Amino acid sequence: AQTVTQSQPEMSVQEAETVTLSCTYDTSENNYYLFWYKQPPSRQMILVIRQEAYKQQNATENRFSVNFQKAAKSFSLKISDSQLGDTAMYFCAFMKKSGGTSYGKLTFGQGTILTVHP
Amino acid sequence: DGGITQSPKYLFRKEGQNVTLSCEQNLNHDAMYWYRQDPGQGLRLIYYSQIVNDFQKGDIAEGYSVSREKKESFPLTVTSAQKNPTAFYLCASSIRQGHTEAFFGQGTRLTVV
């Protein structure tokens, strides 16, 4: 079984600054995906970024980037030039890549509430 | 527009009653999922289905039941056997093959009164 841990229940940042959210995971799998999802006050889950475990290059989506350390089982999210609209709860999630009945299932961390201050 | 629709947005249930949460998708996705969200615990998987007429228990299936008679529909019944049903419930879907992410509905807030 997989576990995902987010050790920061709450974080805050000033508008235009950079913030990093931490995530660690535990798995015996070698092929998997890692995700960061954003849940704003509307509670709609929105995919922020995805990383495939076999890719060494860190994923980047505009102001969002990850630091993926496979050996350390660490997957942090960096948000640059923070905006007020980034205020949300952020979830780190794990998904096994293939095979069996576990395909497509997501295992989530506990979430980090991020507040961006003006 | 394609997407996942959950209804109702808010639902109130008297203790001891069963209640069914609706989830419909028009994305032509094979797989569908139900998650429960509680404060401080993230999302936990209740049930999932990868194909019509087949579904499997997730991590917290006790007190819940599902059906998958149509590809686009995956209703969740919260039975009276569920000890702590008050929670936020999220439905999701994904393409069964490939590496795409899951798409989520807007959720249903269930409150037991």
What pattern of helices and strands is seen along the backbone of chain B? EEEEEEEEEEE
The first-to-last residue Cα distance of chain A is: 41 Å
The backbone outline of chain B, from C-alpha atoms, is: globular
Uncertain residue segments of chain B: none
Provide a count of the helices of chain B: 0
Number of strands of chain A: 12
The total count of strands of chain B amounts to 11
Biggest interface pair, counts: A-B, 24 and 24 residues
Largest sheet of chain A: 6 strands, mixed
Give the integer mean of the pLDDT values of chain B.
91
User: Order of SSEs of chain A, N→C?
Assistant: EEEEEEEEEEEE
Radius of gyration of chain A: 14 Å
Question: Can you put this structure into words, describing what you see?
Answer:
The complex is a heterodimer of chains A (118) and B (113). Chain A is an all-beta fold and 118 residues long. Helices cover 0% and strands 52% of the residues of chain A. Chain A is built from no helices and 12 strands. In chain A, the strands form 3 sheets. In chain A, strands 2, 5, 6, 10, 11 and 12 form a 6-stranded mixed β-sheet that branches. In chain A, strand 7 and strand 8 form a beta hairpin. The N and C termini of chain B lie far apart (35 Å). Chain B contains no helices and 11 strands. Chain B is globular. In chain B, a hairpin with a 2-residue loop joins strand 5 (42-51) and strand 6. By secondary structure, chain B is an all-beta fold. In chain B, strands 2, 4, 5, 6, 9, 10 and 11 form a 7-stranded mixed β-sheet that branches. The interface between A and B is medium-sized, with 24 and 24 residues.
